Amino acid sequence: MAPNHANASPAPLGLMGFGMTTVLLNLHNAQIVPMGSAIMAMGLIFGGMTQFIAGVLEYGNRNTFGMTAFMA
């Protein structure tokens, strides 16, 4: 019998990545911060990479819906 390992859900990580990217975009839309290379880099790292990592972790948990939502 294979061991049963309980893993934490990576969904909060993916949602945090989406939320941080949305906040950065809204700060630019409200003309609070200019769209610079630092804002673009933070959006790509926090948003893109974090959601991709969450999708890979969802695949490891055999959750195809979460994997598709974060990696699509």
UniProtKB/TrEMBL annotation:
Pfam hit, one: Gpr1_Fun34_YaaH
Membrane topology: Multi-pass membrane protein
Localization in the cell: Membrane
This protein's UniProt keywords: Membrane, Transmembrane, Transmembrane helix
Gene Ontology CC, one term: plasma membrane
Source organism, top-level taxon: Bacteria
GO-annotated biological processes: succinate transmembrane transport
Positions of transmembrane segments: 6-27, 39-57
Single GO MF annotation: acetate:proton symporter activity
InterPro entries, sorted: Gpr1/Fun34/SatP-like (IPR000791), SatP (IPR047623)
Family: Belongs to the acetate uptake transporter (AceTr) (TC 2.A.96) family.
Protein name: Acetate transporter
